[in-house]
Amino acid sequence: MGLHTLRLATVPLTFTTSRLFLNPSPTLAFFSRHVQPRKPSFLLRAFSNSTAVQDTPLTQTSSDSSAARTQWKAAIDFKWIRDNKEAVEINIKNRNSNADLEAVLQLYENMVTLQKEVEGIREERNNVAKKMKGKLEPSERERLVEEGKNLKESLVTLEEDLMKLQDELQHVARSIPNMTHPDVPVGGEDSSAIRNEVGSPREFSFPIKDHLQLGKDLDLMDFDSAAEVSGSKFFYLKNEAVLLEMALLNWTLSEVMNKGFTPLTTPEIVRSSIVEKCGFQPRGDNTQVYSIDGTDQCLIGTAEIPVGGIHMDSILLESALPLKYIAFSHCFRTEAGAAGAAAKGLYRVHQFSKAEMFVLCRPEDSESFHNELIQIEEDLFTSLGLHFKTLDMATADLGAPAYRKFDIEAWMPGLGRFGEISSASNCTDYQSRRLGIRFRPSEPLQTGSKKGKANLPSTKFVHTLNATACAVPRMMVCLLENYQQEDGSVVVPETLRPFMGGIEVIKPKLR
Amino acid sequence: MGLHTLRLAAVPMTFSAFTSRLFLKPLPPKTLQTLTLVSRHVRPGKPFLVRAFSASAAVQGIPPTQASDSSAARPQWKASIDFKWIRDNKEAVEINIKNRNSNADLGGVIELYENMVNLQKEVEGIREERNNVAKKMKGKLEPSERERLVEEGKSLKESLVTLEEDLVKLQDELQQVARSIPNMTHPDVPIGGEDSSAIRKEVGSPREFTFPIKDHLQLGKDLDLIDFDSASEVSGSKFFYLKNEAVLLEMALLNWTLSEVMKKGFTPLTTPEIVRSSIVEKCGFQPRGDNTQVYSIDGTDQCLIGTAEIPVGGIHMDSILLESALPLKYIAFSHCFRTEAGAAGAATKGLYRVHQFSKAEMFILCRPEDSETFHHELIQIEEDLFTSLGLHFKTLDMATADLGAPAYRKFDIEAWMPGLGRYGEISSASNCTDYQSRRLGIRYRPSEPLQTGSKKGKASLPATKFVHTLNATACAVPRMMVCLLENYQQEDGSVVIPEPLRPFMGGIGLIKPKLR
């Protein structure tokens, strides 16, 4: 498939199959057709025996996120990285990442060496134990007891070192970005390629207003009160703007559900480990993430996070794939570091409503679903009569999880520029390796109830994709600014009218 | 009007400094009858400093207690509590505190207040002496006499500084202690604990089932509508995902509620869900402490809202509304977040008690003489909504011990939840009279002798009064879902959608099991 993603080392077969019951296919929903191991997988330390041969550590998440140190482990394929060192190095450079590949490889080699050493000592110890089973001279037995004791002591020390090394490796390796689709233009923002362009900027025969002015004149938003009550970049929507938000969401949901997506609402408070596993940074000076005081929880910046988490630490049936969700949530962002004209009005705010698409699929299908997602976005924005262009974002503009990202930028006449209104990313197995979302290919599937470990095909990581269906405030910027009329009113696009009680025009209320 | 609320002392006329900003907007015509009514208020730019009061307010003995910016270290804002009224109605306040099972320390409040008044007088006395000294020094004087006066002035100034510091401390302490005094209570409210609450009304009767029924959790599982298990991994217990038709049902409930309530002249709103913690306090909630219901944001003074009442109450904070702009009636949609600290047991099952939910909340700001009428209007709207959905419910006039500090009177509606086998609260309508407006600083200026407008005539403006605020649940989605799923289940496991909601969920009339 040409998807040069960080591939998986052999997956442990320790997952028991007793819980692999099958649900018949539901009509509406594809949910609940997956298996979630009650307590995710193995203990961190269980690996050294069973996986010594592959010399790749199983990096399963340990269960509760209450642990003190590294709370979870990404199943990063270090062997693949080592064997594709040059490609990874170039990728890191192209993506303007500060990941330290050398350190990762060094730590990995150290770990492998240490692992071998541990194995060696463990073997010696077994040999000693074996020898002690027979009849022995007391002096010889004493010698062996002493030897066994020494070996055990060094084993304890080395295993501790190994744990530390693995933690460090995890820490350093997590900053390695996903690999990149070969068609993605290499370079900074200016290098992004236009994939598609729809419509043309509307020509106005009168002096136009920006959405802030329109919002004020039409009594649709209140930033001033929100600044007192909450802080800057918060807002109240009022009057028809509330109905417009509802209409946008209802219409989007119904359009996207028509394409076979399952609707969801999600928790907006999540454990910070889930945020990390999705590839976001919940801490640090420049974090976009609001944290809850006194807990390990955060507010979500996008529904991608809780939807990504639904199938965490589970093995899906291949027949259940693809899973296509359209999730509605409020999103919260600190917008640390954001300033300037681009931050004006509704364009950049701390809290907003969004409908987000999310797909989990087989690796071989993710590219076609990526194209489906961008097509859905383009269809939606075309129906609303927007002028926009679709960009294949250049390497330096990709977040670490994205293998490829298509942005849509729409014309905002009041702001006098194009502004991003949506983004569709193929994250391949970057997130699923962190979230622990696998599927079991269905080919030689056994009759079911038997606990036949050996007969089951080995699991693979799913690919995940996410795409904005409707980020309400930016859509409002577009709609208000593009559909304003000389008398100060704003026309509601045809498609939305049935969803807002038939209202066709938002008229000035004073006079 | 018989509303024995904590009334306002004379409002400091220092507000007049802001009358220049009291521009009037032309009133909108009734063309857009449902929408509007907002934005017709005036907000003073920056209220006064906390300490600016001692000179001007000395005569009235009550400090004007405007909130300064919420960045200060000590009490960040001051509630305009009418201490004089409390002192003059000591017995009534005492009985009220007892009836409401409050632990407010009235003796402490009154003592602190008396101390403060005395100290205030002392400060005034010294200030007068100091003025006298200054006056004396204006004439020609013996050098020795002048020296004596300089010395006297200096020591007066020193004691003034000390006493003023003491005064500020005393006032802070008074605020601290006095804030726990609950609102007064409507005379018709039954006195006692939960069991004393009086049934105002009862609608419908429990549905009789001819088959073994499920609770909403089982229905949610069987119909693939709710996922608590994944949510507990991703977020923690008592979080949930809604799926499939449940998402559409939430949308339908909110859309239908919004459209019904807008017909009654309410202005729709969406609100910030992160607010400064001072706003939470001003609305009468406790944002901190072990048993707080409020999630706080790390590293800021912000919290998540537990109800849209908070941000809506805050919209007109520190402002003077025009009487003609009242009543302001809002229907606000928000997500609500609650820690539910201390909640446990069967009552917390499934969707009944959760950390995050969607809610449409009504909120009214009105003249004091109108709040009782609007309280009845609010409960009527609630009853009409729930009747349209075919629910069996009763309306309760909540007893004194069951009222939160801000409420003067509270009507709860409890609906029958057959799966849970009990009645459960689905809404609550409270008249908070001026409890919140005294903290939020929301006043209005009676319109009678209103001047021609542009003149900065201080004296001719009528004194401002505090508005009354009321809040009432229009639709708390998860509890409505409990009712709808459990009441409308059928023998084959499907759930019927009530008629009024169908147009709002694409015509879906039935939620069918998806398996088989």
Automatic annotation (TrEMBL), chain A:
Name the source's superkingdom. Answer: Eukaryota
Q: Does the keyword Protein biosynthesis apply?
A: yes
Where, if anywhere, are coiled coils annotated? 104-175
Q: What class of enzyme is it?
A: ligase
Enumerate the UniProt keywords alphabetically: Aminoacyl-tRNA synthetase, ATP-binding, Coiled coil, Ligase, Nucleotide-binding, Protein biosynthesis
Can you name one GO molecular function term for this protein? ATP binding
Protein name from the UniProt record: serine--tRNA ligase
- Could you say which residues bind L-serine here? T302, R333, E356, N466
Look up the record and give one Gene Ontology term from the biological process aspect: seryl-tRNA aminoacylation
Mind telling me which Pfam families this protein's record contains? Seryl_tRNA_N (PF02403), tRNA-synt_2b (PF00587)
InterPro entries attached to this UniProt entry: aa-tRNA-synt_IIb (IPR002314), aa-tRNA-synth_II (IPR006195), aa-tRNA-synth_II/BPL/LPL (IPR045864), Ser-tRNA-ligase_type_1 (IPR002317), Ser-tRNA-synth_1_N (IPR015866), SerRS_1_N_sf (IPR042103), SerRS_core (IPR033729), tRNA-bd_arm (IPR010978)
Q: What is its EC number?
A: 6.1.1.11
| PANTHER family, per the entry | SERYL-TRNA SYNTHETASE
Q: Where does ATP bind?
A: R333, T334, E335, V349, H350, Q351, F352, E420, I421, S422, S423
**Domain Aminoacyl-transfer RNA synthetases class-II family profile, residue spans:** 259-493
* Top-level taxonomy: Eukaryota, Viridiplantae, Streptophyta, Embryophyta, Tracheophyta
Record-annotated site: Important for serine binding: T468
Metal-binding among the record's keywords? no
Q: What GO CC terms are in its UniProt record? A: cytoplasm
UniProtKB/TrEMBL annotation, chain B:
- Residues bound to L-serine are T307, R338, E361, N471
For site (Important for serine binding), what residue positions does UniProt give? Answer: T473
Provide the GO biological process annotations: seryl-tRNA aminoacylation
UniProt xrefs under SUPFAM superfamilies: Class II aaRS and biotin synthetases, tRNA-binding arm
- The yes or no answer to whether the keyword ATP-binding is present is yes
Q: Which residues form a coiled coil?
A: 109-180
Tell me, what's a Pfam family for it? Seryl_tRNA_N
| Name of the protein in its database record | serine--tRNA ligase
